[in-house]
Amino acid sequence: QVQLVESGGGLVQPGGSLRLSCAASGSRFSINAMGWYRQAAGKQRDMVATITSGGNTNYADSVKGRFTVSRDNAKNTAYLQMNSLKPEDTAVYYCNVFWADGRSSWGQGTQVTVSS
């Protein structure tokens, strides 16, 4: 059974940093791409950053220069390093995995709150 385990969320002051992790398991298929999405209260879920198996990355304009997505292919794990956090970054962050068989899986979400 496919499982995505996220960790690293929490409460941080503006200007602070957090690192999210997402470990994927349970599929016999390889991973084509991994990504991070976020959903603030009352808003839609939006893409934050994605990374392909080859290391190509894509970022939302709002996080460029502050967030860095990376992955360890051997561990099927993706990371999101978030620096210079702002209150508007407050949201539930979800990990997404796009498998080689065309299926997509979502993590359970981890809360990130940026507040003084």
Characterise this structure:
- There is one protein chain.
- The protein has 116 residues and is an all-beta fold.
- It contains no helices and 11 strands.
- Strands 2, 4, 5, 6, 9, 10 and 11 form a 7-stranded mixed sheet that branches. Strands 1-3-8-7 form a 4-stranded antiparallel sheet, with no helix packed on it.
- It is globular, with a radius of gyration of 14 Å.
- The model has no long low-confidence stretch (mean pLDDT 96).
TL;DR of this structure?
With 116 residues, the chain is mostly beta strands. The protein has strands at 3-7, 10-12, 18-25, 31-39, 45-52, 57-59, 67-72, 77-82, 91-99, 104-106, 110-114. The strands form two sheets. Strands 2, 4, 5, 6, 9, 10 and 11 form a seven-stranded mixed sheet that branches. It has a four-stranded antiparallel sheet with strand order 1-3-8-7, with no helix packed on it.
Distance between the termini: 40 Å
Radius of gyration: 14 Å
Shape: globular
Describe the main β-sheet briefly: 7 strands, mixed
Structure classification: mainly beta
Mean pLDDT: 96
Number of strands: 11
Low-confidence stretches: none
Put simply, the count of helices is 0
- The arrangement of helices and strands along the chain is EEEEEEEEEEE
Keywords:
globular, seven-stranded mixed β-sheet, 116 residues, mainly beta
Describe how the helices and strands are arranged.
Blueprint: E1 3-7, E2 10-12, E3 18-25, E4 31-39, E5 45-52, E6 57-59, E7 67-72, E8 77-82, E9 91-99, E10 104-106, E11 110-114
Parallel strand pairs: 2-11
Antiparallel strand pairs: 1-3, 3-8, 4-5, 4-9, 5-6, 7-8, 9-10, 9-11
